Amino acid sequence: xxxxxxxxxxxxxxxxxxxxxxxxxxxxxxxxxxxxxxxxxxxxxxxxxxxxxxxxxxxxxxxxxxxxxxxxxxxxxxxxxxxxxxxxxxxxxxxxxxxxxxxxxxxxxxxxxxxxxxxxxxxxxxxxxxxxxxxxxxxxxxxxxxxxxxxxxxxxxxxxxxxxxxxxxxxxxxxxxxxxxxxxxxxxxxxxxxxxxxxxxxxxxxxxxxxxxxxxxxxxxxxxxxxxxxxxxxxxxxxxxxxxxxxxxxxxxxxxxxxxxxxxxxxxxxxxxxxxxxxxxxxxxxxxxxxxxxxxxxxxxxxxxxxxxxxxxxxxxxxxxxxxxxxxxxxxxxxxxxxxxxxxxxxxxxxxxxxxxxxxxxxxxxxxxxxxxxxxxxxxxxxxxxxxxxxxxxxxxxxxxxxxxxxxxxxxxxxxxxxxxxxxxxxxxxxxxxxxxxxxxxxxxxxxxxxxxxxxxxx
Amino acid sequence: xxxxxxxxxxxxxxxxxxxxxxxxxxxxxxxxxxxxxxxxxxxxxxxxxxxxxxxxxxxxxxxxxxxxxxxxxxxxxxxxxxxxxxxxxxxxxxxxxxxxxxxxxxxxxxxxxxxxxxxxxxxxxxxxxxxxxxxxxxxxxxxxxxxxxxxxxxxxxxxxxxxxxxxxxxxxxxxxxxxxxxxxxxxxxxxxxxxxxxxxxxxxxxxxxxxxxxxxxxxxxxxxxxxxxxxxxxxxxxxxxxxxxxxxxxxxxxxxxxxxxxxxxxxxxxxxxxxxxxxxxxxxxxxxxxxxxxxxxxxxxxxxxxxxxxxxxxxxxxxxxxxxxxxxxxxxxxxxxxxxxxxxxxxxxxxxxxxxxxxxxxxxxxxxxxxxxxxxxxxxxxxxxxxxxxxxxxxx
Lengths: 459, 396
Hints:
CATH topology of chain B: Alkaline Phosphatase, subunit A
Organism (chain B): Seonamhaeicola maritimus
CATH class of chain B: Alpha Beta
Strand content of chain A: under 5%
Distance between the termini of chain B: 31 Å
Pfam families (chain A): DUF1800 (PF08811)
Organism (chain A): Seonamhaeicola maritimus
Order of helices and strands of chain B: HHHEEHEEHEHHEEHHHHEHEEEEHH
Largest interface: A-B, 49 and 45 residues
Oligomer: heterodimer
Strand content of chain B: 5-15%
Helix content of chain A: 40-55%
Number of helices of chain B: 14
Shape of chain A: globular
InterPro entries (chain A): DUF1800
Shape of chain B: globular
Structural class of chain B: alpha/beta
Number of strands of chain A: 6
Number of strands of chain B: 12
Protein name (chain A): DUF1800 domain-containing protein
């Protein structure tokens, strides 16, 4: 497979690729590269923390949990922070690369958050478990998650007093998209989800007394439907497959939809709603490697941060700083703005985030220093400036970084070939002209210069 | 230095920084469709207990529901025969006496949501409580009427959803210098070739370059314009006081900014409410009074309207931990020198007519207040921004 295409593939279904790995893969055929990616992602490795203590505090009923509620909430906040960090660690060089990238994708599709850590972790691992599985089973599992029944009020949805929140978002955001159902469809399907609830420990329970066993008329069909029936009826619509394919296309291929590509994808997905088959199809399509799809998307903050870490490992000594960075860049994992999720694309970028994102590689990796030595000159300022920064601002960027790792993996890359490994798109003429006027002091300094370009924001 | 002059100078003095033509393009729009009126929004996060803020001190029901959590009749700062302010609000009382404060009671929305996140989301996006939006009301104001990122500034480290539009976003800055410092590395300036900005087209990379140039130009504009002006009053030494001080500095330096956004956190008083709310309300009132005085001295108060809201009020009945739980409708403050109806805009909520949860029933949809402010104060088409037509009130 062509190196250029491997890099593109790995940037989209992962967070980039090191030159050493690239060398190995370039001997294989495209089919083999793609196959090995998906085979490696067969396994599911949940992300789990020790929840024994918090589970004990919760007990098996609200009566047990009630006196402990403040403690449960405090521990939940702490554990959620830990999960946030662990998730970012997981995204950096994972063994199940595609599964992890898909988990990140689904987290902005089935958007949810909760203040109970046990429910949060369950929900999170449900995303991972089904990330490449069957979409029908995925939706059913999501509808029964404790965190979701809380987030969209399904547990308040009773025969006597229906709550339509979940039914509405199921169709608007999770399966069909706005405008593909009526208000009456929402009312009727909400009845089918009555009685959904969960135990204190977070397992799904169906409360018969709260369920509406009457007939519901939904999308022209009438019957005593339950929640799963409703999901089946929704999935019968080709629009559902198309809606998911559109979202996958925007995330993995291009912000702008290509109708014929999406239509091909929908043909594949509508057959059996198999997510892995769909993703294999996308990665195998020739159009996936078209020039217009390479290096033309804006990285999400997490893609940006993890992308940096993939080339040069960074350890945050202070978890708060990692959270703070996510907040400043506008994407805190496990803390979405609302059920509609992050808008993505150009919406990641505003004056604050662009200024930070351009400066961040040098801040995290190079004591804020971007070399500006003219061609043919050594960088006299370098050492002094870095020391000054460390002394004065070091505690705000309390990180360890491993340039040794970078040097090892980039050993066989010539300095003037570095850009093709670091950047996903061509350097614009003006920036190229400026870079040509500068001395390439070292691979590290040149890498920082490249990472400080707007071009580095692309993937 | 005024904006026009700044743009001219910076584009001529291009050794320092270059402003490409698309940034200059909005120069012409500025004076034509925007007046000089500006809006300051203050968000009280956590759900301020409105009933202990504006107190119905003659209402027996109030004292009955809050045996341990009431504001005693003798402590209330009396506004009328029935209604008084929390004793921490003496500075607000002075604004009231001068006719600079309108209190709107019972503000909320249909089918109220009692989650902080969700209710704040509803207030910030101004949609119905069963809809979700990825853009905020000020963000959509920018989409239609904003000319530069600094048309709206949030005095914070990052932007709230309220300040994010479909296509445009406001700017967030805690002080004029931090953003400027972040963007001033000469490396970034040198990436732009001032002879040629044609490659800055609409595609994503072009968009990033535009954003980079706009960020620097905005940060530099804010920094250079505001650095000559300093506060004329001593502000309370707390985070909120600092936010208002920065806001006043920006306003008094005549930044071309239409909307400012500040916030005060910590109102989620489930337990031990009395001391917490006392402290927060006094921070709020002292800060705001200083702010008003500072603007008056700067000659900018006449053109400034200050709107204070919280995502919900709290339950009428106190809870078992000397606090109150999440409620619904709440009071909202409008402060300015051009109020049509200073004082109490409407009656207090009826404590005998509560909803099934024991919460107040709202009377005024907060979006009618937004619509009024957009239409009558900022002089724009509110329907375009709120995506719906709302009745206009007559407080301004």
